[in-house]
């Protein structure tokens, strides 16, 4: 059997489950299931929603059905990378420290492995360190990058990156953005301008706006997710740092509240620590700790 990466990622979450259900069961009570979900940082509103439909004793099939239901419909739809769109242009957004820059390196690796030519854009011009950090990844991964000096207009970087990427004939463009500016309002305006500018450099760009959420924040990251969605519209979510947190259940809350596909999850600090999210495997991994 293939090594279950979700098991590794959800280790802390599964440890928390073991405290509630020390030995695996055929059926558990509603109270036990509720406690497991609470411990895994599923938000209370969703827990109530899940419990409504469940009988007093729950077996694996019922639990599986209830949890999978959260991912039904649009949440499972993914935008395929590329297709006829070349270059396929992505903007990566999220609060500072969420893991944007690291995740860009990881995404670039995924595309590289598929034989696609990638170009990065250092659109976080707010901090010099941000430009350096992305440049360092670009160098390590031998990927070209468009970068300017700190303080320059990030929209100009967006424009230059897309123009350059089209001229070079790259397959993918990934653009970094700032997680924080002087004010929240500035950030919103800046991001909106970056999106508009992308559209000027290439019709209907960007193809995908990816929101990065810090997995260690659990369900409390949903409010910021909603804000970003209001500001520029989010097409896909990547949850980072799921290694080493017991808040693995927050993915359920995020999917339920946002109704936006969860594309990947981050499982560490190296460029290879990104796995495609798969709702069934994720749920089966959690249920595997509960039921025989
Ligand atoms: N353990 C773990 N650490 C991660 C993961 N993703 C990112 N990190 C770490 O989180 C920290 C912040 O990551 P960055 O990529 O710099 O985050 P950012 O969103 O670009 O931050 P700003 O540029 O400050 O807005 C770094 O130390 C990363 O190595 C992950 O999946 N797992
Ligand atoms: Mg960054």
Description of the molecule:
- The chain has 292 residues and is an alpha/beta fold.
- It has 2 domains: 5-74; 79-277, 3-Layer(aba) Sandwich (Rossmann fold), CATH 3.40.50.300.
- It has 12 helices and 10 strands.
- The strands form 2 sheets. An 8-stranded mixed sheet has the order 5-4-6-3-7-8-9-10, sandwiched between helices. A two-stranded antiparallel sheet has the order 1-2.
- The longest helix is centred in the middle third of the chain and has 18 residues, at 184-201.
- The chain is elongated and about 60 Å long.
- The protein starts with a helix and ends with a helix.
- The model has no long low-confidence stretch (mean pLDDT 92).
**CATH superfamily heading of the largest domain:** P-loop containing nucleotide triphosphate hydrolases
Annotated CATH architecture of the largest domain: 3-Layer(aba) Sandwich
Strand content: 5-15%
Spell the H/E element sequence. HHEHHEHEHEHEHEHEHEHEEH
Give the helix/strand class.
alpha/beta
Oligomer: single chain
Q: Any idea what the shape is?
A: elongated
CA radius of gyration: 20 Å
- CATH uppermost class of the largest domain: Alpha Beta
Count of DSSP strands: 10
- How many structurally independent domains? 2
Could you name the CATH topology of the largest domain? Rossmann fold
The largest sheet, given as strand count, sense and whether it forms a barrel, is:
8 strands, mixed
Strand order of the largest sheet: 5-4-6-3-7-8-9-10
């Amino acid at each position: 059997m293939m090594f279950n990466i979700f098991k590794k990622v959800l280790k802390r979450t599964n440890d928390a489950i073991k405290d509630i259900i020390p030995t695996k069961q055929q059926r558990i009570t509603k109270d036990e299931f509720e406690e497991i979900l609470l411990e895994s940082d599923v938000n209370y509103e969703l827990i109530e929603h899940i419990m409504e439909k469940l009988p007093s004793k729950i077996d694996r099939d019922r639990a599986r059905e209830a949890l999978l239901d959260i991912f039904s419909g649009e949440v499972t739809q993914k935008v395929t990378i590329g297709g006829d769109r070349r270059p396929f242009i992505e903007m990566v957004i999220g609060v500072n420290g969420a893991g944007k820059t690291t995740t860009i390196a990881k995404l670039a690796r995924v595309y590289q492995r598929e034989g696609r030519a990638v170009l990065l854009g250092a659109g976080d011009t707010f901090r010099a360190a941000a430009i350096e950090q992305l440049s360092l990844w670009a160098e390590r991964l031998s990927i070209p990058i468009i970068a300017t000096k700190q303080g320059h207009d990030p929209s100009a970087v967006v424009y230059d990156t897309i123009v350059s990427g089209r001229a070079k004939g790259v397959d993918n463009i990934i653009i970094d953005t700032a997680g924080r500016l002087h004010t929240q309002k500035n950030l919103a305006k800046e991001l909106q301008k970056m999106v508009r500018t992308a559209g000027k450099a290439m019709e209907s760009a960007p193809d995908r706006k990816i929101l990065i959420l810090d997995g260690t924040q659990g369900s409390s990251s949903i409010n910021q997710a909603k804000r970003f969605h209001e500001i520029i519209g989010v097409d896909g979510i990547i949850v980072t740092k799921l290694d080493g947190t017991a808040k693995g259940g927050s993915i359920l809350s995020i999917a339920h509240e946002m109704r936006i596909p969860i594309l990947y999850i981050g499982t560490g600090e190296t460029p290879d620590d990104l796995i495609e999210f798969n709702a069934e495997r994720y749920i089966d991994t959690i249920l595997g700790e509960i039921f025989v």
